[in-house]
């Protein structure tokens, strides 16, 4: 249980973030599908969203240089887009437009894949295995991972193939496009100066905590036991006990593995009672008992940083990475525009 305000990512979104159809930002020369107008209302007055077209999964909906794109691939692509834009709603009259946008991304991915197949990739099977294992590690157990794959209408065999395609495309972009892109010192400095506000960091603290978790629906007796336990721990700390040791042995937060260390955080990242207590402490100080919706905490501030503007030399690497990614994205889009001019693209979507 964490005190940070962000919520856990859904399993579907988690897996689509790991196994997408093309590298992030390189999907197509067209912009991603926009959040279309609000839902329409049916005869009862209830809001409705468009249903996917009733198309047989193996029906061919397009061909790119003779290679087929099947309906099931379009269905998966739309799920990826929808999972990355959870508030998107598509009225029936815009469904065809949405389908064509998703198909355009699939077409672009196929063009990149066909080009990428011309290049040799050493140890690709090992790379596929490593990437899938990385994806699995983001799930709590194998069953959750399996359900996430199934949510995309995929089998593990399908996942292997999509991962292979992703690596082929990534390799092509890296070798033929990204390797030729550079960012000059002048460009990097200009970006820093033009966006100086983006490099201002607010006050932050590094804190550890001991949490005795209490479920919101817990009985008064359970809450009393938790309060008694945290009070006992606070007395032990006052007597000289080691904070990290007590956290490892007693805290119900996953941070207990690190002796309760939550790392650095700024204002607005933690729930209010926790934040107020943490920012009121000086380095090395330990709080009284703090109650939040998660239970009872004892907080120790390990370090603090004042508001500051990150120096150019410290920001340069991130700026260069960002500017390079923008240039690569543009170059990929340019490549696709030219590739489409000579490609044989047949759209069969009904």
What does this protein look like?
The protein has 2 domains: 188 residues, Orthogonal Bundle (Triger factor/SurA peptide-binding fold), CATH 1.10.4030.10; 102 residues, Chitinase A, domain 3, CATH 3.10.50. It contains 11 helices and 11 strands. Helix 2 packs across helix 3. The longest helix is centred in the last third of the chain and has 31 residues. The protein is extended and about 75 Å long. About 15% of the residues have low confidence.
Throw out a few tags for this protein.
350 residues, alpha+beta, Chitinase A, domain 3, 2 domains, 11 helices, 11 strands
Characterize this entry briefly.
The chain has 350 residues and is an alpha+beta fold.
Provide the CATH architecture of the largest domain.
Orthogonal Bundle
Query: Which residue ranges are poorly predicted, with pLDDT under 50 across at least 5 consecutive positions?
Result: 4-54
CATH fold topology of the largest domain: Triger factor/SurA peptide-binding fold
Distance between the first and last residues' Cα: 48 Å
What does the main sheet amount to? Answer: 4 strands, antiparallel
Shape call: extended
Q: Can you tell me the number of structural domains?
A: 2
Helix content: 40-55%
Which structural class do you get from the secondary structure elements?
Answer: alpha+beta
The CATH homologous superfamily of the largest domain is termed: Porin chaperone SurA, peptide-binding domain
Tell me, rounded to a whole number, the average pLDDT: 84
Number of helices: 11
- Strand proportion: 5-15%
Question: Could you tell me the number of beta strands?
Answer: 11
The radius of gyration over CA amounts to: 26 Å
Order of helical and strand elements: HEEEEHHHHHHEEHHEHEEEHE
What is the assembly state of the chains in this entry?
Answer: single chain
- Biggest sheet: strands side by side, in what order? 7-6-9-8
């Amino acid at each position: 249980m964490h005190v940070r305000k962000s919520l856990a990512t859904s399993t579907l979104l988690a897996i689509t973030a790991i196994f997408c159809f093309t590298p992030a930002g390189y999907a197509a020369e067209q912009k991603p599908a926009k959040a279309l107008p609000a839902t329409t209302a049916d005869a009862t007055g209830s809001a409705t969203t468009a249903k996917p077209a009733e198309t047989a999964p193996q029906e061919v909906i397009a061909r790119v240089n003779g290679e087929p794109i099947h309906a099931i691939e379009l269905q998966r692509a739309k799920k990826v887009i929808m999972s990355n834009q959870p508030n998107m709603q598509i009225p029936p009259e815009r469904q065809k437009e949405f389908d064509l946008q998703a198909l355009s991304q699939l077409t672009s991915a196929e063009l990149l894949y066909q080009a990428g197949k011309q290049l040799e990739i050493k140890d690709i099977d090992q790379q596929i295995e490593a990437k899938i294992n990385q994806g699995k590690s983001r799930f709590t157990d194998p069953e959750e991972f399996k359900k996430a794959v199934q949510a995309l209408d995929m089998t593990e065999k399908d996942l292997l193939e999509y991962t292979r395609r992703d690596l082929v495309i990534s390799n092509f972009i890296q070798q033929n496009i990204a390797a030729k892109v550079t960012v000059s010192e002048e460009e990097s400095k200009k970006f820093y100066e033009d966006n100086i506000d983006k490099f201002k960091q607010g006050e932050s603290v590094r804190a550890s905590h001991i949490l005795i978790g209490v479920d919101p629906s817990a009985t008064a007796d359970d809450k009393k036991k938790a309060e008694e336990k945290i009070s006992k721990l606070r007395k032990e700390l006052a007597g000289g006990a080691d904070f990290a040791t007590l956290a490892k042995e007693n805290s119900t937060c996953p941070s207990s593995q690190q002796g309760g260390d939550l790392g650095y955080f700024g204002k607005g990242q933690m729930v209010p009672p926790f934040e107020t207590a943490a920012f009121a402490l000086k380095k090395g100080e330990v709080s009284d008992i703090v109650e939040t919706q998660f239970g009872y905490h004892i907080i120790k501030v390990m370090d603090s940083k004042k508001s500051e503007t990150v120096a150019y030399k410290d920001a340069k690497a991130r700026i260069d990475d960002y500017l390079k990614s923008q240039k690569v994205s543009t170059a990929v889009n340019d490549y696709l525009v030219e590739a489409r001019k000579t490609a044989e693209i047949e759209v069969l979507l009904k």
